[in-house]
Design a protein that fits this description.
It is built from three helices and no strands. With 109 residues, the protein is mainly α. 3% of the residues are buried. The model has no long low-confidence stretch (mean pLDDT 77).
Amino acid sequence: MEFLVWILHILAAAAVVGLVLLQHGKGADMGAAFGSGSSGSLFGATGSANFLSRATAVLATVFFLTSLGLAYFSSSKGKTEVAPVAPQQSLPMPAQPQGEPSKAGAIPK
């Protein structure tokens, strides 16, 4: 289930980016007055703005909901119970011979 939400999330993110890049800014209307050609688009002069803005709003909502779903999946993973681990006992150090000093950390000559 989480994998499907990830796929939908990535697709919604890419679609939102694409739709935002397709939309004209507020300054684009001035170019249309001088023959930019936006009135000859598939949806008409104002239809494209309404369709693109509505599609962007729907996909932004899908992106938001998938973000909440992924946050839920992430938080539910941390609540799994882990069996308590007993502390490890340290092993006793081996006995050093009485006649020889320890060579640990000694600098060779």
